[in-house]
């Protein structure tokens, strides 16, 4: 009975999504406030009903209702509770339900927080989001219903893939989807602006916190995915260029470009066409990412679903979204103003170049990800595109963009005085060069790749610091340092933090690639091996019992020049007959290095194959991503967005261009 | 040979053997021995693994031969070691793998008619992007001459750093 209620709630949600879309768009076109009010209430109702449907599915998992096909194929009674809950989005149907739940959440957030904007503009935003939601709800109900019954009920549920029985499964998909779906707001704002012909500063300003927030979630999602793969897959890599990873990385790249483009559109009114295109593509690529991962067209670690009907449906949906949006863009493109002019070398043009490089990189990764699928579909041949291709293409494309991070923030709008800029950046560059020479030598082995990576990393950090110092110096010196620091906006500090995050990431990626060491050895009890200056000794092997697995657990004593460092417990886990044994790597986390031990097979009685890694600075990779996310968060909470919210409520709803621009002191 | 000396001798050899056993036990338990690398020849192993990282494990979902512990991957790594020991070059091994499994085994797709777009795509995208950059910059520069004639934002010009 309860699942049927969930199914029914989902149908009602579809009806409400259709109501929301039609009443909002018609209400905006006719200027009918009652219809617009209906759209706002429908958005809220939609959220409530989808939440109800989602709750019933979670309940199905918690109560282990094996008469539900979806529950029976993704969970069983022996699974610990937190993974039973997470198993709700462990498969295709449930993750799509999570998708629409999050979409409904974003919709209500927009409906509640955008009251200071013109009512017809907000109505169009709700209309677009309602259409997207209706499309996905129809997809769920027609091809991916999670509430299908199984008659008779299964006796035992199928086990969740052991790789997914991890805290990563609890956190990673919701984060990623918050990001994916969050771009629907930027998309809807852009479409609404095109529809109403008001691509003004108010539109760009109001798009920024939403886009940045979605980007923050996506950043965390990508980082969590990378971290999870690192500790769970057991071969110590942190990025595999797997199609599923690319599916989240491509929207991230485009979203990053969008954030920067929005800065130009808000402050200078320029590049608006470009911004709209990026908003359309960021969301479309998020949809494509969902399609790639969930339709089963990929053969990869994460693709579990296989059903061509779903693929066709999402492709049609995708075609409607992209095609419709681009058609609208094309019909309105000539009415998009150019905004304020700028010189060939100016902050605008540098940001444009950064956008171009990010978009080209995203396009190339997309090409490499889709190419084998297209060849296969055309029956031209089966090829694999993997790490060697992506690194050959991606690294040269991103390097200039990374270099520009150091220049962009210091460049003036409109026109750059090159000698002056060079003068202000000379110290940052000098510090970069010195570090590039010094760090590889301090690490004990020269490597040109490391040297170059360090140059980029230090260049970005040092120029960020130089920019901040320059700003502090420019203010009247009689003002206290604290006051001078506070004169800069939160979004400025957010930008600095995010850029330093990129620098930290580059440092980590470069150092771990250049200096990691590993050994694969045969170990019996009492054997020792030295890796990266640490001595590892296998003390004992024992059997351990988990909630739904048995494990062979090793105890390895780690010491360094005779001093005990830690004890590590790598495991080989057995999750029952149907699964191959899983390696559960033991990791000794450390800021400057990780020690990573993975058990292989038993070679002979009492002797195991063991792989031990020493990974210097590997954690900087995720610290970098975390800093980027924190920087984004800081920017979201910039005061001027709140100023805009509070100061404009009393003003009549029609926003004239440039009206919602109360503060002139903020740039970033 | 009398019986006494025989017993003495066997007693002595037995005690020596016992001592050796104890010594070796002690060695494993308290001092341990240095674990042997899985591969006999580390230099060859490094070369093999570097090459294996560019080849796909065909029975895995998306893992290279270097990363996978599937039976096929282990066998193929063993085969590569053998071939390398017999003096095969990297290209010889790649050719062998392609002959046996097709292009699908290569993570770096070979340049041929069907992959021209794959390899030239990024360059074309870059040219397209730089073309757009150039066009935008030209338009914006001329736009500068008459800033407000084509939709320049009033008030935005004063918003500078």
Fold blueprint:
The complex is a heterodimer of chains A (668) and B (161).
Chain A: H1 2-30, H2 33-62, H3 69-74, H4 81-86, H5 92-113, H6 119-143, H7 167-196, H8 201-232, H9 243-268, H10 272-294, H11 308-332, H12 347-377, H13 387-407, H14 418-442, H15 448-474, H16 481-487, H17 490-515, E1 517-524, E2 528-531, E3 534-545, E4 550-560, E5 563-568, E6 571-574, E7 582-584, E8 586-588, E9 593-604, E10 607-616, H18 620-636, H19 639-648
Antiparallel strand pairs in A: 1-10, 2-3, 3-4, 4-5, 4-6, 6-7, 8-9, 9-10
Chain B: H1 3-31, E1 36-37, H2 42-52, H3 71-85, H4 90-101, H5 116-145
Tell me what you see in this structure.
The complex is a heterodimer of chains A (668) and B (161). Chain A has 668 residues and is of the alpha+beta class. Chain A contains 19 helices and 10 strands. In chain A, strands 2, 3, 4, 5, 6 and 7 form a 6-stranded antiparallel β-sheet that branches. In chain A, strands 1-10-9-8 form a 4-stranded antiparallel β-sheet, covered by helices on one side. In chain A, β4 and β5 (563-568) form a beta hairpin. Chain A is globular, with a radius of gyration of 27 Å. Chain B has 161 residues and is mainly alpha-helical. Among the domains of chain B are: 42-109, Helicase, Ruva Protein, domain 3, CATH 1.10.8.640; 114-142. Helices cover 60% and strands 1% of the residues of chain B. In chain B, α2 (42-52) crosses α3 (71-85). Chain B is elongated. Residues 1-6, 26-30 and 147-161 of chain B have low confidence and may be disordered. At the A-B interface, α9, α12, α13, β1 and β2 of A face α1, β1 and α5 of B.
